[in-house]
Write a structure and sequence with these properties.
mainly beta; 13 strands; 42% strand; globular
Length: 188
Protein backbone atom coordinates (compact mmCIF):
# COMPACT_ATOMS: atom_id res chain seq x y z
CA UNK A 1 0.00 0.00 0.00
CA UNK A 2 1.44 3.34 -0.98
CA UNK A 3 -0.25 5.37 1.75
CA UNK A 4 1.26 5.62 5.20
CA UNK A 5 -0.72 3.69 7.74
CA UNK A 6 1.37 4.65 10.75
CA UNK A 7 0.03 8.20 11.30
CA UNK A 8 -2.67 8.19 13.97
CA UNK A 9 -2.72 11.96 14.66
CA UNK A 10 -5.56 12.71 12.33
CA UNK A 11 -8.61 14.94 12.18
CA UNK A 12 -12.02 13.63 13.10
CA UNK A 13 -14.77 13.68 10.48
CA UNK A 14 -17.59 15.86 11.74
CA UNK A 15 -20.82 14.02 11.03
CA UNK A 16 -22.50 14.37 14.37
CA UNK A 17 -26.20 14.77 13.58
CA UNK A 18 -28.28 13.40 16.45
CA UNK A 19 -25.31 11.94 18.35
CA UNK A 20 -25.68 12.06 22.11
CA UNK A 21 -22.71 14.01 23.43
CA UNK A 22 -22.51 12.17 26.75
CA UNK A 23 -22.63 8.62 25.38
CA UNK A 24 -19.50 6.53 26.01
CA UNK A 25 -17.60 4.93 23.13
CA UNK A 26 -17.91 1.14 23.15
CA UNK A 27 -15.62 -0.89 20.91
CA UNK A 28 -17.41 -3.50 18.80
CA UNK A 29 -14.44 -4.70 16.77
CA UNK A 30 -10.77 -3.70 16.86
CA UNK A 31 -8.63 -5.24 14.11
CA UNK A 32 -5.33 -4.46 15.91
CA UNK A 33 -6.59 -6.27 19.03
CA UNK A 34 -8.73 -9.03 17.49
CA UNK A 35 -7.11 -9.66 14.12
CA UNK A 36 -9.08 -10.77 11.09
CA UNK A 37 -11.36 -13.01 13.16
CA UNK A 38 -14.44 -14.19 11.27
CA UNK A 39 -14.46 -11.30 8.79
CA UNK A 40 -14.74 -12.62 5.24
CA UNK A 41 -15.07 -11.45 1.66
CA UNK A 42 -18.42 -11.39 -0.12
CA UNK A 43 -18.32 -10.12 -3.69
CA UNK A 44 -20.85 -9.99 -6.50
CA UNK A 45 -19.65 -13.41 -7.71
CA UNK A 46 -22.43 -14.81 -5.49
CA UNK A 47 -24.76 -13.41 -8.19
CA UNK A 48 -22.56 -14.15 -11.22
CA UNK A 49 -20.52 -10.92 -11.15
CA UNK A 50 -16.79 -10.60 -11.80
CA UNK A 51 -15.56 -8.28 -9.01
CA UNK A 52 -12.72 -9.45 -6.80
CA UNK A 53 -11.22 -8.34 -3.51
CA UNK A 54 -8.87 -9.33 -0.71
CA UNK A 55 -8.86 -8.84 3.04
CA UNK A 56 -5.40 -8.91 4.58
CA UNK A 57 -3.87 -7.71 7.81
CA UNK A 58 -1.14 -5.04 7.62
CA UNK A 59 2.11 -5.12 9.59
CA UNK A 60 0.51 -2.84 12.19
CA UNK A 61 -2.58 -5.10 12.42
CA UNK A 62 -5.15 -3.04 10.56
CA UNK A 63 -7.48 -4.63 8.03
CA UNK A 64 -6.53 -3.88 4.40
CA UNK A 65 -9.55 -4.34 2.12
CA UNK A 66 -8.72 -3.89 -1.55
CA UNK A 67 -9.74 -5.03 -4.99
CA UNK A 68 -11.54 -4.21 -8.21
CA UNK A 69 -15.26 -3.67 -8.73
CA UNK A 70 -16.50 -4.90 -12.11
CA UNK A 71 -19.87 -4.28 -13.74
CA UNK A 72 -19.53 -7.37 -15.97
CA UNK A 73 -22.29 -9.96 -15.77
CA UNK A 74 -24.56 -7.64 -13.75
CA UNK A 75 -21.94 -7.31 -11.01
CA UNK A 76 -20.94 -4.21 -9.14
CA UNK A 77 -19.85 -4.71 -5.52
CA UNK A 78 -17.18 -5.99 -3.17
CA UNK A 79 -17.65 -6.32 0.57
CA UNK A 80 -16.33 -7.71 3.82
CA UNK A 81 -18.65 -8.87 6.53
CA UNK A 82 -18.82 -10.60 9.87
CA UNK A 83 -21.80 -12.57 11.19
CA UNK A 84 -22.26 -13.12 14.93
CA UNK A 85 -25.73 -14.74 15.10
CA UNK A 86 -25.03 -16.64 18.34
CA UNK A 87 -23.38 -13.74 20.17
CA UNK A 88 -24.88 -10.44 18.91
CA UNK A 89 -23.29 -7.09 19.64
CA UNK A 90 -25.31 -5.45 22.40
CA UNK A 91 -26.42 -1.95 21.45
CA UNK A 92 -27.85 -0.02 24.41
CA UNK A 93 -30.31 2.86 24.32
CA UNK A 94 -27.53 5.32 25.27
CA UNK A 95 -25.86 4.65 21.93
CA UNK A 96 -26.76 6.69 18.85
CA UNK A 97 -24.01 6.23 16.23
CA UNK A 98 -21.44 3.85 14.79
CA UNK A 99 -17.87 5.14 14.73
CA UNK A 100 -15.48 3.82 12.08
CA UNK A 101 -11.77 4.53 12.24
CA UNK A 102 -10.26 4.17 8.77
CA UNK A 103 -7.82 5.39 6.14
CA UNK A 104 -9.69 5.75 2.86
CA UNK A 105 -8.99 6.24 -0.82
CA UNK A 106 -11.41 9.06 -1.69
CA UNK A 107 -14.21 6.68 -2.69
CA UNK A 108 -17.67 6.12 -1.24
CA UNK A 109 -18.37 3.08 0.96
CA UNK A 110 -21.52 1.73 2.57
CA UNK A 111 -21.56 0.50 6.17
CA UNK A 112 -24.36 -1.95 6.97
CA UNK A 113 -25.71 -3.82 9.96
CA UNK A 114 -28.33 -6.52 10.37
CA UNK A 115 -30.36 -7.11 13.52
CA UNK A 116 -32.03 -10.32 14.79
CA UNK A 117 -35.37 -8.80 13.63
CA UNK A 118 -35.43 -9.46 9.89
CA UNK A 119 -33.29 -10.30 6.89
CA UNK A 120 -32.84 -6.71 5.72
CA UNK A 121 -29.75 -4.63 6.41
CA UNK A 122 -29.56 -1.02 7.56
CA UNK A 123 -26.97 0.97 5.63
CA UNK A 124 -25.38 4.36 5.25
CA UNK A 125 -23.06 5.57 2.47
CA UNK A 126 -20.13 7.81 3.40
CA UNK A 127 -17.22 9.37 1.54
CA UNK A 128 -13.58 8.91 2.45
CA UNK A 129 -10.63 11.25 2.01
CA UNK A 130 -7.71 10.35 -0.24
CA UNK A 131 -5.02 12.17 1.71
CA UNK A 132 -3.40 9.13 3.35
CA UNK A 133 -4.58 10.25 6.78
CA UNK A 134 -6.66 8.31 9.30
CA UNK A 135 -10.18 9.63 9.82
CA UNK A 136 -13.10 8.92 12.10
CA UNK A 137 -16.49 8.48 10.44
CA UNK A 138 -19.58 8.83 12.65
CA UNK A 139 -22.76 7.26 11.31
CA UNK A 140 -25.93 8.25 13.20
CA UNK A 141 -28.28 5.32 13.70
CA UNK A 142 -31.30 7.29 12.49
CA UNK A 143 -29.62 7.91 9.10
CA UNK A 144 -29.23 4.19 8.36
CA UNK A 145 -31.91 3.05 5.89
CA UNK A 146 -33.28 -0.49 5.52
CA UNK A 147 -32.64 -2.45 2.31
CA UNK A 148 -32.87 -6.05 1.20
CA UNK A 149 -30.72 -7.08 -1.77
CA UNK A 150 -30.27 -3.39 -2.59
CA UNK A 151 -33.99 -2.57 -2.63
CA UNK A 152 -35.63 -0.29 -0.02
CA UNK A 153 -37.67 -1.97 2.72
CA UNK A 154 -40.67 -0.19 4.19
CA UNK A 155 -39.55 -0.12 7.84
CA UNK A 156 -38.23 2.74 10.00
CA UNK A 157 -34.51 3.56 9.94
CA UNK A 158 -32.21 1.71 12.32
CA UNK A 159 -33.18 2.33 15.93
CA UNK A 160 -30.21 0.91 17.80
CA UNK A 161 -31.11 -2.78 18.03
CA UNK A 162 -28.56 -5.51 18.72
CA UNK A 163 -26.36 -6.38 15.73
CA UNK A 164 -25.83 -9.88 14.28
CA UNK A 165 -23.95 -8.81 11.13
CA UNK A 166 -21.69 -5.93 10.11
CA UNK A 167 -20.65 -5.23 6.52
CA UNK A 168 -18.48 -2.72 4.67
CA UNK A 169 -19.29 -2.53 0.96
CA UNK A 170 -18.16 -0.64 -2.11
CA UNK A 171 -20.59 -0.51 -5.02
CA UNK A 172 -20.73 2.87 -6.73
CA UNK A 173 -22.29 1.74 -10.04
CA UNK A 174 -18.94 2.00 -11.83
CA UNK A 175 -15.85 -0.06 -12.46
CA UNK A 176 -13.08 0.97 -10.09
CA UNK A 177 -10.18 -0.26 -8.01
CA UNK A 178 -10.20 0.47 -4.30
CA UNK A 179 -8.24 0.08 -1.09
CA UNK A 180 -9.11 1.04 2.43
CA UNK A 181 -7.57 0.40 5.84
CA UNK A 182 -9.92 -0.26 8.76
CA UNK A 183 -8.76 0.00 12.36
CA UNK A 184 -11.98 -0.35 14.31
CA UNK A 185 -15.76 -0.18 14.55
CA UNK A 186 -17.33 1.22 17.71
CA UNK A 187 -20.60 2.75 18.91
CA UNK A 188 -21.32 5.81 21.04
Amino acid sequence: MSRSNENNNNPQRNNTDNIKADSPVVMLYSFPQQGKGKWRIQNDVVMGGRSNSQLQMTSDNNAHFSGRVSLENNGGFCSIHQTVEKDPYNITEEMSAFVLRLNGDGKDYNFRVRTPNGRHLYGYTFSTKADGQWETISIPFNKMEAKYHGEPVDVPNYAGENVVEMQLLIGNNKEETFEILIESIAVH
